[in-house]
Amino acid sequence: MTATAKRTSAEYHQRARELEASGGEKPVKIAILASFTAELLKPYIVVESADLGCRIAPWFAPFGQFEQMILNPASPLWKEEYDLIWIALRLEDLDRHLHHEHPSLGPERTAARLDALRSRVMAAAKAARANTRATLLLSNFAFSSLYAPGLFDASDPDGFGHLLAATNWQLAKDAAALSDTHVFDYQGLVNATGASQWADPKLWYMARAVSSAANHGALAQALARAVSALVRPTVKCIVLDLDNTLWGGVLGDDGLEGIKLGDDYPGNVFKEFQAALLGLHQRGFLLAISTKNDEATVLEALRFHPEMVLREKHFASIFANWDSKPANLRRIAEALNIGPDAMLFVDDNPVERAQMRAELPMVQVLELPADSASYVAALQECSLFDRPRLLLEDRRRGEMYEHSRQRSKHLESGASLEQALKDLRMMAQVGEAGPQTFERIHQLIQKTNQFNLTTRRHRLEEVRNLSQAPDAKVAWLRLQDRYGAQGLVCVGILRKLDADCWEVDSFLMSCRVGGRRVEAAFMGYLAELARASGARRLRGVFRPTAKNEPVRRLYPELGFRSVPSSSKDSEQVFEIELEDGVLPWPDLIGREEKPKRGDA
Amino acid sequence: MPEPLELRVRRVVSSVLGLPIEQVTLKTSSDDVENWDSLSIVNLMMAIEEEFQVGLSPEEAGDLLSVELISQVLQEKLAQ
Question: Among A249, A349, A417, A486, which is least packed by CB within 10 angstroms?
């Protein structure tokens, strides 16, 4: 986190006003309930969020009135629907003298006071959760400079710092137990800036300001990053250049032995950068290569250079040729079945970056610094990698795509497609949503753009409520084949329209299992669920977006007939009678049943 | 020639309070600007400290009530 003052305070005010007057894209609405004068942050939040490309419109609860705001159903907080609520309570505002009193109180009573503070935050969070579908963000607790602990505080197992850390740990556990609730790492931010640099005592005494004016920008930026990570679809694939990006020097000129990569300067800079990218790969980001090089030479380097951290198997797609980078990026997007807007382009050459921005403005471009020693920092500062929580599917995604490369070879080699699909020995498991699957279902709902018939972005809480409603069903499908597990790849939501008819509210599938009849199997399962609930007709809706053209014909292809649509003109409505044998489960996919309305 | 102090003050007031610079005169004050409230005074204080590289005391901040008063505070401050 950098706390560089990019703008002066007056410039923040000016720019914020311009942004607010300019209109444009609908901003993310957030409500801020703080124990300090959060309103002072307003221009900083407006400007920093716009810089990140995720505009925020903040609303501030009257100073210090967080509990009143949350508990009173008639309070202004509940008059509007917010996307996110930030509960920002600080130790130094609410129990200001605790650290002075800590030595005389002793560890138990100090811990109890800290715990009371944590409970206060959690009580507020739970009350809010019961009232709203908004994402909740809870600040953890930090030392301010006024609380700088003594030199031997860390040496004492009952030291204030350790007690505070234990409180923050418990807060994280509490937040994780509450749906769509996340910790805002206020402590991490203060530490990164330096506790002694953080606060301006005068501003706190006078106006209960959260920090010195110079740190308002950094705090607003961290908040904007958190909000953006929680509400904005993230990057899925990192497209990398090779020469002077993954190694020093030019492979074509310097040769395999000549490129700089190893444990000494400057090779260690690039090795570390590769290690950081491998870390991202393991967190579920796909890696791909677009390089102006000869393919055989590139593969030789990936396979045989002794110092490479990233190997051929880590890349979901490799394009080494002399075509333009935007052309290659389009090919990678096509090969991986993801949109260009889910891709991040990393190249040391500013000309290539400029060309990418000009030709494919929706592609995210990492501003790689001229000094390669700062490459890793540039990755770490990139908000596009921020993810609230890592799911099992994220960890395994890279592996799955590697399997998928083998699978495509398999499909290319097969005599007939039908036979090739049979040889995949697919086995599906279907079931209804439960606590183990809510988060993955919500993730797919947020991320899936192409194979998504209605693109309704239900929030986590909605998914949970629908799964328990008598007139709705939330269903999933997991897939496995001879090359490995694909995980939970389909999500469907059904809603009862009337005694006879149920509607497919949402139907979406991860593109990595496209072209394998999985959608037919899953639709068959949804039809079974609807029939079991007494439906005689199933209605499907296609809501066109910029991304879902590939599934425009899905319903007719599955045997649904078109019916006139009374609502929006772009929406297409289809129906099918749920007679015996309708929407059959494809033979080439095996099926494993989950016994009850539970989970896998 | 450096920009006169009063003009710099007018600029800061204009940015922080969102008034067109031509409407900000020496006489512009909290009496006739609706959003020149206690929150704005803190915002003005932070902006002025930064613009003029000075530290203002809470007492001095209490005087940030008009362009004229701000200019006076700063003149005294910068003369020290």
Answer: A417
State the complex-level ipTM: 0.87
Asked if A63 reaches chain B (Cβ–Cβ under 8 Å), the answer is no
Residue A566 has a pLDDT of 73
Q: Do residue B58 and residue A9 have CB atoms under 8 angstroms apart?
A: no
Tell me the pLDDT of chain A averaged across its residues: 87
Round to whole Å and give the CA distance between A260 and A256.
Answer: 9
Average pLDDT, integer, range A501-509: 95
Whole-number pLDDT of residue A433: 94
- B12 vs A10: CB contact, 8 Å cut-off? yes
CA distance B55 to chain A (A): 10
CB A145 within 8 A of CB A199: yes
Cβ contact, residue pair A40, B43, below 8 Å: yes
Any B CB within 8 A of A9 CB: yes
Mean predicted confidence (pLDDT) in B30-55: 92
- pLDDT value of position B48: 95
CA proximity to A269, closest of A291, A301, A245, A299: A245
Buried b (16+ CB within 10 A) or exposed e, A301-316: bbeebeebbbeeebbb
A485 part of contact set with chain B, CB < 8 Å: no
Residue A600 has pLDDT above 50, yes or no: no
CA-CA distances (angstroms) from residue A42 to A176, A215, A223?
28, 13, 12
Q: Which of residues 16-75 of B touch A (CB under 8 A)?
A: 16, 18, 38-39, 42-43, 46-47, 49-51, 57-58, 61
Retrieve residue A543's tokens.
């809501």
Q: Do A8 and B42 touch (CB under 8 A)?
A: no
Q: Does A203 touch chain B (CB under 8 A)?
A: yes
Rounded to a whole number, what is the distance in Å from the CA of A78 to chain B's nearest CA? 24
Give tens-digit pLDDT for A120-165.
Answer: 999 999 999 888 888 899 999 998 666 666 778 889 898 898 999 9
> Mean per-residue pLDDT for A382-403?
67
Q: Do the chains contact at A206 and B47, CB–CB below 8 Å?
A: no
What pTM, to 2 d.p., does this model score? 0.60
Give residue A466's pLDDT band: very low, low, confident or very high (50, 70, 90). very high
Q: Do residues A142 and A114 lie in contact, with contact meaning Cβ atoms separated by under 8 Å?
A: no
Residues 6+ apart with CB under 8 A from A218: A1, A2, A3, A189, A193
Enter the tokens of residue A557.
Answer: 């292809």
Structure tokens at B6: 């009063």
- Rounded distance between C-alpha atoms, residue A299 and residue B73, angstroms: 69
pLDDT of A408: 66
Burial A152-162 (b: 16+ CB within 10 A, else e): ebeeeeebbeb
In this structure, the number of other CB atoms found within 10 A of the CB of residue B51 comes to: 17
pLDDT at B79: 85
